[in-house]
What we know:
This protein has helices at 15-18, 22-39, 69-81, 94-97, 107-118, 173-190, 215-235, 252-262, 276-279, 290-297, 309-313, 326-336, 351-358, 361-364, and strands spanning 51-52, 56-61, 85-93, 98-100, 103-104, 122-128, 152-156, 165-168, 196-201, 208-209, 240-244, 265-268, 303-307, 341-345, 382-383. It is an alpha/beta fold.
Amino acid sequence: MKPYNLIKSNIILPIAFRRVNAISIAAFLFAIGMIAASVHAAPIPPGTTGIKWHPGHYYTIQNWANDDPIYMAQVYKELEATPALRGMQMRYLWGWIEKSPGVYDFSSIDKHLEKLTAIGKRLVIQVQTKSFDADWKLIPDYLKAPKYEGGAFAFNNWGSTTIDGHNIKLWNPYVRNRLVALFKALGERYNSHPNFEGIGMIETAMGQAVTPLTAAQSDEWFNNLVIVQQKARTFFPNTMTIQEINYPRQYLKQLTTAMVEMGGALGCPDIYPDEPDLKFPGNPYSPQGAYPYFSQLSGVVPIAPTVEKVNYLNTRGDKLGHVPTIQELLIFGRDELKSNYIFWQRLPEYVDQVLEVMSWKRQTGTPSGGLRAACPSVYPSCITD
């Protein structure tokens, strides 16, 4: 049971495990009992070649809410009451997980994985290497050193003069290697856990760099992204590994081809039924958009898009479409993108509508909630128990 050792030299343990006194001993023993009841539930045996496969509908949790007790208590209540929701995806900024080189804090992931296991649900996490707020702690502080070229670059939206966020300097081989090390640590800890369903990386859209990137930097950024995903597949031999794709279109063929070869999954940060750039079929002068890859590769690799807040608001990113219904988003994701998984961002103003659709017979009639359930052909086999 190596992945679940509670004492590990390069893991930061929760405070309750470090400050042992008369009171905390009781809490410690109680926690041990709870963990034993969950993580010892049929771990994946070493040497198993199958990959965990539980397609269907999942919540996506805003990263600010990961450890909000009131918000998350309601999330767990809804998950327990909704059979069509098979679990949730949680997002973690790289800088939240790695505190110093090789020193990781997995306590939040452990906590939610334990709770989900106890109610028969599953966890997918996304390692966020792009931020959408200039103040977010995207990267560990040590990556700001010259060796890593500062670790991240600022970007803004077209026509904007303010910094909207940061993306990692993945063209730098030292940044790449540190990200690979993070996935290695995550794989050692979670691959064999039966309720750890998947792990993914954020969208391919790099953002408009405040200091324009060179062609060589962009090319190497994507070359290294492929390397990180290849390494992740080896660290998670029994777990779905996801790459969100959207832009730039000229790199998507390279990336999707590599994901098929390594047995990875394709996600997308948005379900936009009327978005012309994402739906673009391609022509002799310009490559196809992200969406055609999903229908073309359905049944070959897992397809796992996300419904984000902006998707509830309009069917197009430029807001020239219309306000969709939840059913409309579901039908597009199910029938046009041919999804195996759909992640629904849980927002208070839309949650009742999502839960209503999740209660319909089409979603409750099968474990996959009406989504495609066949084991992808790139997988040697699927573990469905």
